[in-house]
Specification:
Distance between the termini: 52 Å
Number of helices: 4
Order of helices and strands: HEHEEHEH
Number of domains: 1
Number of strands: 4
Helix content: 40-55%
Radius of gyration: 23 Å
Shape: elongated
Structural class: alpha+beta
Strand order of the largest sheet: 1-2-3-4
Largest sheet: 4 strands, antiparallel
Length: about 160
């Protein structure tokens, strides 16, 4: 004979378990979508940055630490992200550069990141070799590294 209390208990546990699993799946899907949106914003930034005129020439040892390299402030909303100059090492002739989220970012995912990290939070850092013969190739390498590191940091 089946005990009705056991049946009720197993049904309740099963429903709770299924509900919990569904909630976890929804949370995972939401997090994955947010990461995808940030990932898309990073990819779009790299594509836009490839078309900035004379951008590689801005990556020099003369760049003041903390100064903006790309894009110009007038394009903050379009680019959503920026590259700022970091420390320049006189010995290695490498300029550290930081990928940061602009305060005018439109992407909800990037806006959330700014709330957590501020606009001065470094999403990614890379090192630009100012002695590279092919400045454009070095610029492309650094952009790709910044995007890859940014995506990894976001999850």
């Amino acid at each position: 004979m089946v005990n009705p209390i056991d049946t009720w208990f197993h049904t309740a546990v099963s429903c709770f378990s299924n509900s919990y699993q569904h909630q976890v799946q929804l949370e995972h899907r939401f997090a994955t979508q947010e990461i995808a949106k940030m990932s898309k914003a990073l990819t779009e930034f790299a594509q836009l940055a490839q078309n900035v005129k004379n951008a590689p020439s801005k990556f020099t040892g003369a760049a003041a630490e903390g100064s903006r390299l790309i894009p110009s402030r007038t394009k903050d909303a379009l680019f959503q992200l920026r590259v700022d100059a970091g420390h320049y090492n006189d010995k290695t002739k490498h300029l550290n550069v930081n990928l940061q989220v602009n305060s005018q970012a439109k992407s909800p995912a990037l806006k959330d990141w700014v709330k957590k990290s501020t606009t001065h939070g470094k999403l990614a850092t890379a090192s630009f070799d100012t002695t590279a013969e092919d400045k454009y190739a070095e610029y492309t390498r650094v952009l790709n590294e910044l995007v890859k590191s940014g995506k990894q940091k976001l999850g």
